[in-house]
Amino acid sequence: MYQHTRFNNKNSFFQKFGNLDYILLSCLLILGLISLATMYSTDGGEILFHTRSHFIKFIVFFSMMIVISFINIKFWFSLGYLSYAIILGMLIWTVNFGITASGSKRWIDLYFLNLQPSELMKIFIILCLAKYFHRMKTQHVNSFYAICFSLIIIFVPMSLVIIQPDLGTSLLIAISGIVVLWFAGLNHKYFFYSCLLSIISLPIIISFLKPYQKLRVLTFLNPDRDPLGAGYQIIQSKIAVGSGGITGKGFLKGTQSYLEFLPEKHTDFIFTLYSEEFGFIGSVLLLLIYSIIIYRVIRIGALSRSYFAKLFCYSFGTSIFIYIVINMSMVLGLLPIVGSPLPIMSYGGSSMLATMIGFGIVMSAKTHSQQSIA
Amino acid sequence: MINISDNATKLNSLNRRMFILATAKIIILGGIVSRLFFLQVKENKKYLTLSDKNRIREWKLPPIRGEFKDYFGNTIAGNFEAYQLHIIPEEVEDFRYVIYRVKELLDLSEKQFKKILKKKNEIKPWETLIVADNLSWEKFSKINNHLYDLNGVKPVISISRDYPYKENFTHILGYVSQANENDLLTNENIKEKFAPGLKVGKTGLEKSFEKKLIGSNSVERYEVNAYGRRISQLAFQKGDKGETIKLTIDTKIQELTNELLKEKAGSICVMDIYTGAIIAMHSSPSFDPNSFVFGISQDEWQLIRNNPMKPLVNKSLSGNYSPGSTIKPIVALSALENEIISPDFTVQCKGHNNPLELYGQTYHCWKKEGHGFVNLREAMKQSCDTYFYEVARRLGVDRLSVTAKKFGLGQKVFKDTFDNEKNGLVPNTEWKKNALGRNWVLGETIITGIGQGFIQTTPIQLCLMTAQIANGGYKVYPKIVADDDNQYADKFTPLYKKSRNIKIIQDAMFSSTNEVRGTSYRSRFDDPKYQFAGKTGTSQVKKITERDRELDLKTFQIPYEERDHALYVAFGPYKNPRYALSIIIEHGGSGGTVAAPLAKELFKMIIDRHEIRKNYDNKKYLDI
């Protein structure tokens, strides 16, 4: 049985310092710089609100990540359920007292920051489920009780986010949770059957969607249906990316964004702007940086001794990958438009905070890779 | 509690699944890269075009309209620089202050002011608000002096239509005004060249020659943002001014016709009998076309529209009148041509006590006492109705209509040049059967012989008819545009069978003006240089009853709408004819007393100016 003791660091501070994954760190820094440059471009080549705010958030949360990486992974293990419960409480708070913006209630006013708990949930659901499965014996993983319990863990925050309403984030939360289930060893057939079930029930689900969500699906299927209305975002985004060409239009020369044809260019569509200005080469380079980051995260997982750390790293790496894929597919017209930020690149404090906490825990797993958790 | 081997299985399963997912990730990543490749490399051209289409927008500016010149090169419809005041609302810091300041400076009325505010609310803040479109120089300079205080106000000089001769050319030229929806729908050319502020011809030659006059747009190319706001100008492409059109009109004579018809309703047409060139053509009353250029005020429009003398109608082309006695030359000619009568054919006119009676109807001559025995020349001279009743009876309406049509009656003189020209009407038996479904009766033939009944002519048709008699009976095609050299195959083909017959008619018309007892004897010239020959006409608006005949009222005693139309057709100089004219004065009374005197004044000037016109023609060739 695990007993909580005061962490007595067996490793000295300097050893931990040496154990940091510097490749991951530098990739994150480069990504941060790229995102700052892109943000500067969305501000029209001036240091305005978004650039400044993004810069501060990046610095603060990056430092926070370093701090987190010095905290023993055991601490995060012990915090697994509690943090999940706290975020859940925040979500309930949001539903009742949240700040409403553009038709949905997503934020809590923390005076210095408008926090979006649903973004944090994307990370902490992984932490919670990783802890849950860490203790479980193999034969119990596929038991009815375990499956039900883990599905409830996923379903409760998901439904709290859906009623905000925020379909995109709730799907991402669900995906994060399902990813953990996959790694924990849930039988393949469950995934297969639920996939089949969801495909069959798709028409029924669509009939339950809100009108604007239905419109998004229809628009995805045929963006030219209403080029100035619902299809506008996706058409303009494709035009921006496509007109970028191989080398791009050049830094600060993206006409689509500069002339305000691009919607949501700070947040969900930041990749569109980046891709317009830096072209195919720049986009592939960005993908490369993301790939290295994910690779390093998974490698840290592979080198970790504890099951919890492995499960967390694998799930976190995969989730980040899925976030990136969903965001890019969306702006490239491969998926319907759902609100999903591009990790680190997109403007948004909560998303950045959540992502950095995630990387912090991963880094902590690296510095404490030999730590076993009972 | 945690079994080592179980832990190992768990780790194995975890690593195996990681491996599966890693493979999937690489495939998905490949998918994204290929999508990027497809959009950015393969379809790059397409999206680059779309992006340019997004950001580049062209603004067409209204083209500069071509001008109209008279025969001597005077501008009769030109362009002038209108002083305008523009405001772009978003560039103004304090719109309220500025607009009140402008109101004060320009002395705008409350109504005008409200209109401007309304317009401001309809446009986007970066679009131009035209506060005033035609300022006087005083007000314009006043604004310029106060510019320091009027941030965002732009004094602009814009090119606009100007008719320097005001009402003189209104019915020939028409007028221009803001293009409306209807213009865009009916004219492809206007649609293509439309730009805000474009003015197009609404009537007359301005409308007919729209295509030539309109010119081509200047184009400004701007980079715009998603909201259509101009960011920067990329290019400017200058358009061409529209073509200048030269007319055959002599402004001096045109002005005289306007003078002569002052305060009368009517029309004067003057034509060169050989070339068909229109020297003057005026319809009265007229109006100032300049007031339409910037939109006419409701009051002014009502005043023009409700005027009982109908200034909006171009009487020269769309006025259908009974020709009255002015038809007599054609009736006589037709009878001679068809060998119904000889010049010596004589009829006795017995006066009102003993009128001509046919099939129970009586037909009176205009002269109460009667003319006695008259032959052709005498009947034309004194315009004896009884003589022409008898001639018409013998001739029949069908043969008459053939001759009348040959000489240009019953069809449009300018073909399609004017959209408001009327056909007139030359009746015959077949026409009546088709149009009214009834048979022709002989009584109708008889009154057709004196230009009453169904027959309708426009003043320009009468002018053409006279011209073709004057030139010896040869076909001419009237033209109003100087370099209109349409080569009609049948130009100058003879319209007569025997040229002697034309001579007889000319001579009879000469007697009517220049011999004692002629109906227009009082308007004659004794100097052979100016001598002209003509035929008067008085056309009844209302059937004369027995009671009217007994009362024998003077013109001024009859209500205006029931008075006769006064007509006169003439050509001159008699010895060597060159010009023909037709005059009609609505409800003027008798042709001899009202219309013919105008001809005298006209011929004086026309013949005086003939030398100038001829020299101008020659000079043109010498200059080359």
Approximate strand percentage of chain B? 15-25%
Average pLDDT of chain A, rounded to a whole number, is 88
Q: What is the CA-CA span between the terminal residues of chain B? A: 120 Å
- Helical content of chain A stands at 55-70%
Low-confidence stretches of chain A: 1-9
Compute the number of strand runs of chain B: 19
Per CATH, the superfamily of the largest domain in chain B is DD-peptidase/beta-lactamase superfamily
Mean pLDDT of chain B: 88
- Name the structural class of chain B: alpha+beta
Query: What oligomerization state is this entry in?
Result: heterodimer
Number of contiguous helices of chain A:
15
Report the CATH C-level class of the largest domain in chain B: Alpha Beta
Residues in helices of chain B, as a percent range? 40-55%
Please count the beta strands of chain A (DSSP E, at least 2 residues each). 3
Characterise the protein shown here.
The complex is a heterodimer of chains A (374) and B (624). By secondary structure, chain A is mainly α. Chain A has one domain (20-367). Chain A is built from 15 helices and three strands. A three-stranded antiparallel sheet of chain A has the order 1-2-3, with helices on one face. In chain A, helix 5 (117-134) runs antiparallel to helix 7 (144-162) and helix 8 packs antiparallel against helix 14. The longest helix of chain A is centred in the C-terminal third of the chain and has 34 residues, at 270-303. The radius of gyration of chain A is 21 Å and the shape is globular. Mean pLDDT of chain A is 88; it is low at 1-9. Helix content of chain B is 41%, strand content 17%. In chain B, helix 15 (328-337) crosses helix 17 and helix 16 crosses helix 22 (499-514). In chain B, strands 2, 3, 4, 5 and 10 form a five-stranded mixed sheet that branches. Chain B has a five-stranded antiparallel sheet with strand order 12-11-19-18-17, with helices on both faces. A three-stranded antiparallel sheet of chain B has the order 1-8-9. Chain B has two domains: 59-246, Penicillin-binding protein 2a (Domain 2) (Alpha-Beta Complex), CATH 3.90.1310; 251-285 and 313-623, DD-peptidase/beta-lactamase superfamily (Beta-lactamase, 3-Layer(aba) Sandwich). The relative contact order of chain B is 0.10. Chain B is built from 24 helices and 19 strands. The N and C termini of chain B lie far apart (120 Å). The model of chain B has no long low-confidence stretch (mean pLDDT 88). With 624 residues, chain B is an alpha+beta fold. The longest helix of chain B is centred in the N-terminal third of the chain and has 39 residues, at 4-42. The interface between A and B is large, with 46 and 42 residues.
